[in-house]
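User:
Note these tokens:
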Amino acid sequence: MKIIEEKTVSKTGNRDTCEDRYCVTGHYACVIDGATNVSGRIYNGLTPGQIASGVIAKTIPTLPPDADISEIVKSINDNLIHYYKAHGIYDSILENPFSCPTASMVLYSKSRHTIWMIGDCQCMIDDKWYTNAKIVDDIIANIRSFVLEVELQRGKTIEELMKKDTGHEAVRSFKRMQYYLQNTEVETQYSYIALTGFEFNLDSIETLYVDPVAKYLVLASDGYPGLKPTLEETEKELEYILKNDPLCFREYKLGKGLIEGNVSFDDRTYVKVKLD
């Protein structure tokens, strides 16, 4: 596989704060999105999302070329648990689920002609776009949107809300609560899966078959509102949202928006690979 285009940008503009990672080998292509830090905790200088994405990025090149998804998830989980224990944070994570290193991943296996999507991520197979959104994200986004509309009616301005997003403050507790619905043993209407080091139902993984005649793939984190065949087109769509709906509560509803001083509402990664 050959990388045609790639880009990773932190929402702050500072690469050191980025929680996205990607990895392309002879057998796999992968984009990993470390979850935003809702606990405020830092472990050994890293956010929980950076820990998760970093461990996963180091795991992918060690996988057998023809590994199935159960082998892949087990390897990732084993390495995450090893990290937690080696750095003395395992017990803290068990006590505070919302502080657990968490990541989403979209992974392509060349030998199996398969894409696996775990958590919030997106991809394109040639010109067809696929997403993997969570119901809880839609709920939180709509609550935040409601709060922001009320704030505007009360006299606040978009500029003021970009300095202090009271909508985001209103859903902060919901963002912590959602971690109790992550990788649940008994599936609920709001359950979702993510890579954390702990087991989950593998049947919940979104699986896509890649036709051997496909020419290219795009793998991306959810820092882009949509995917296009080229990086330039994808960036233009993001620029449109940042200009016309910077708080991300009308045209493109999210649980967070652009904060004054940042360059985007989330970290973003775009990787386009040519298939043999």
Observations:
- The mean pLDDT is 95.
- The beta strands are 2-9, 20-24, 28-34, 103-109, 114-118, 122-125, 128-131, 206-209, 216-220, 268-274.
